[in-house]
């Protein structure tokens, strides 16, 4: 029986009670990591952890709150003895055209995605610098590269995460801490499947592979960046979009 790619490691994943975040937690767990499932909904986080079994713990975490993020990192270290992998995955959408979007909806999306990722990078890297190693993975999006109609907030936040990733990577590389990002494209989740069928089909038709991706395919990219197979990679941005923006 082969050893898992992250055997003996510990990981914390934000926004991991469902969707892509839960699939990331599941794959890291399958590959040998102990996982801390963080989510603003503590009950859902606990249920998600229970579904994975031994070596998975659920905890509430508001990624927009500095103390909550710091406490989550400290709780992971207390539970597992270390923090090797941190995934900034939590996100929300508040879609609307530029003229109709409220300032509150613009700020809410930036707070969760960009501020939340910054707080996660800062808290996780404080622990990892002391250990002399660690991998931080930030979830961006292809919409941060191309922009999406009705998503000036989301696209801005996801573009900002790329800048955050590269700046943090430069600051932390000499401490043995790697920071990379993943940019998913159209992924089949409950959120995207709620789109009108004709819109979803049109978006799939624009993808060279002619299909939406699966959460597991995004998780696979995260696993690679979390593992020693990417040990000489930092500041990288991996597209998982079926070739959409080639």
UniProtKB/TrEMBL annotation:
GO terms for biological process: fatty acid elongation. Keywords: Oxidoreductase, Plasmid. Belongs to the short-chain dehydrogenases/reductases (SDR) family. InterPro entries: KR_dom, NAD(P)-bd_dom_sf, Sc_DH/Rdtase_CS, SDR_fam. GO terms for molecular function: 3-oxoacyl-[acyl-carrier-protein] reductase (NADPH) activity. The gene is fabG. This is 3-oxoacyl-ACP reductase FabG. The keyword Oxidoreductase applies. Residues 9-185 form the Ketoreductase domain. PANTHER family: 3-OXOACYL-[ACYL-CARRIER-PROTEIN] REDUCTASE, CHLOROPLASTIC, SHORT-CHAIN DEHYDROGENASES/REDUCTASES FAMILY MEMBER. It comes from the Bacteria. Pfam families: adh_short_C2 (PF13561). Coiled coil: none annotated. Its EC number is 1.1.1.100. It comes from Rhodococcus qingshengii JCM 15477. It is an enzyme of class 1 (oxidoreductase).
